[in-house]
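Repro:
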Amino acid sequence: MAGCVFCEGGRPPADHRIADLGATVAYLNDDQFFAGWTVLVLKRHAVELFDLDAAERARVVEEVSRVASVLQAAFDARKLNYASFGNQIPHMHWHVIPRLASDPAPLESPWNVPHAPVRLDHAALTTRIAGLRAGLGP
């Protein structure tokens, strides 16, 4: 859709792509302060859950859940945060954020925790993505 950042190619970097899940594509968030933070971007343009028919909506929720399960296993998260805002980028996308036992502010929203961004070097990025892909399986 014209004017949509994601539809016009402004998706996360290709080297952060974890997997095409069907209705969405999963990417490792650039800032890994919260280790494993993953963003699932709907492959077609839609803004709200009600823009999806029941089958597509169920598929998206299943994909979010599948990624959450892999993140739980990979990072031993004590809790997972799920977010779909869309007020900055009005294209359906979901943030799935593992919250670990070592979390410096476990009661705060990830967006409210002051921190320097953690960007993985190429080797660490490749390793983390490979581990998540393996967890997702075929």
